[in-house]
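Deliverable D5.2: sample structural annotation.
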Amino acid sequence: MKEKISKIKSKIDTSNPMTRKLLKNIIIAAIIVFVGIIILIIVKFLFFSRISVTKLEERMEKAAKKYYTEYSELLPEEDKESVTVSIQELVNNNNLKSLDKLLKEKDASCEGNVTVTRNGSEYLYTPYLECTDLYKTKRLYEEIINDKNIVEEKSGLYHINSKYVYRGDDVNNYLKFANQNWRIISVDEEDHSIRVLQEKGTKQSYVWDDRYNSDRKSNIGINEYDTSRIRESLESLWQGDKVFKDKDKKYILNKPLCIGGRNNKDTDKTGTVECQITYKELPLSLMLPSDYLMASLDSQCEKTDDNSCSNYNYLYNDDDDAYYWSTTPYKSDSKNVFYFGPDPDLSSANHSYKLKFVINLSPDSIYLKGDGTKDNPYIIKQFD
């Protein structure tokens, strides 16, 4: 290499004034280019590496994961238990840059924290950020139960007892989650969990139960949820990743399953009848007859066998080929279970119907966009 450079130099006649001037200009140009590159690197580091306050939540979430990787003993051990770490603690522990060096908005005054909640076997990291006059994290439930959405007549969101419940046939309760479409049934006023129903059910059909029924002396099934095939199917479906990926499961709460029986003449719409008996807390459930009754605005809708319940009801299923199980047994015998298709009706447990999952979303689900209409459903912000 040195020999090649020497040969090149030997060929350059530095005694020529024009050659010396040319070399000088080349050296000056090279210095200018070098200095320019250094300046660009500095500018990129000082300005383009900064982020806006709307992107800060993602950085906070990643910083909190690093923090709790280092201090894993601080993570919650019990289901629904939470811990919180502040922005300042993340900065002090070198997990996050100081905000005055991180944000594009130099005058931004921000406070916040990251809450880590254990949902089942998953941890949900939820950043909460408030920057004066610039940005504030909003939970999905806050967007849903906004005063502007509450109605007292016609279709919409009603405040009934301790819940906010959608009623009527023209309701803006569409949600996009886990690459699926859902309908929001209600929001719990106390814990702010969001109860939602799959818009389209499973392609496969499932037997509710096919065990030998000694009352009927045949394999017609027994309508007791805790020993049923449908319980086994729901728990098995949750364990795999065909329905929900791990990144989605952390947003889903475990809740007690209401498995109490009801009769055709029961008029309760609040779920009190079905929830007189509950099974252990689980993430997947199915719709209840009381959900269907509550959703109708028809004053003549009182019982599951009232045809008028299909009126003004977004849960009415007009697809004659689609039948879906509930988790509710018929109280007056040991073989029948309520199903939907299109109206609530009774069927022997050994029949096969599809499933529409009901889940409860965490109150820490962050609102990203949407107004709940079919064309613009609610969407939550999910971090990797």
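Annotation notes: DSSP finds nine helices and 20 strands in the chain. Residues 55-137 form one domain.
The annotation will be released with the project's public dataset once the embargo ends.
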